[in-house]
Amino acid sequence: MMNNTQITIPQNRLDRGFFAHQKEYEDKAIEVLRSGWYILGREVEEFQKEFASFVGAKYCLGVANGLDALWIAFRVLGIGKGDEVIVQANTYIASVMGITINGATPVFVEPDEYYNIDTSKIEKKITERTKAILVVHLYGQASNMAPIMQIAKKHNLRVVEDCAQSHGAVFEGKTTGTFGDIGCFSFYPSKNLGAFGDGGAIVTDDPQIAEDVRVFRNYGSEKRYYNKVVGTNSRLDEMQAGLLRVRLSHLTELTGERIGICNSYLENMNNDLITLPSIREGATHIWHQFVVRTEHRDDLKDYLASKGIGTIIHYPIPPHLSEAYRYLGFKKGAFPITEKYADSVLSLPLYNGMTEEERGAVIEAVNSFKI
Ligand SMILES: *Cc1c(COP(=O)(O)O)cnc(C)c1O
Question: Shortest CA distance to 111 belongs to which of 130, 133, 131, 138?
């Protein structure tokens, strides 16, 4: 379909979230600028405490971004060459890179109807090389953690959680990021807890892991110019930490706003051609994305664009079929559910500060889609 219609409701917009608490962000930015201290200072210290308390973990260590959180997690767990890590096939490619940067091999498992790992398919993928399960709480919904933790215990596997999309999502009363050995977070601007640049964090209850991450992220150095291990430079900076503290202080209300928008979508969207997202019993969804599914995905995308409504596909090419992972040797058809999702999912507009009018326009457009 050809159209020159302007997108008036983008899939995401970050300015509204800034303006909602503009004065607090600007005051904090000026405070940090005037402090004369920009790396590993008070803001990071305070943010780490506040975020650890928010998720209910003992320790939090800021790092430079979500991908660093993932690969540093596997590095400090000693998982690398010759080891296998189980992960859902329908994830953002960063989850997989977190595994392969250390030389470990990803072992893919198909997702369930909630777009998270199908726990009934994990055990048959376990070999004597399997060292860990990487759980991704995709789109903001907590994964089915009870069976995952059971399987991990039975087979003596580590559990790492990719919480880049699940800040504050809960499974049976426990927050994502606190089930496994390590929880990995991204604060990329579009995430639910978004910075104004890159940022990430690792949470854990294990004091040794916390210490290893703290040293590793800062050139392997505990004391200036004394280097214990070959580490990296991956630090959350003072500006981002300060601004994240402001956002975190509002996160419960911001998540509530997203839940309100998505509940309205769920109640009012009604189109036989489109499958709406659903929530697993015992899990909460913090709605990083509102993802619908239809066999007529590309038509729906074009139709919404013709009405000025932007959408994004999360994600069009599953990692096992991406050029980057051709070396793993997978062919089309290797993971049919994952591939079907890649061909049929569509993320509708969702952002803090979305007006009732914008929400209504999206609902009306989705309901009026025909083939
Ligand atoms: C965003 C994201 C990451 C990577 O985070 P960055 O901060 O962009 O490096 C990892 N995993 C998932 C599932 C993500 O959505």
Answer: 138
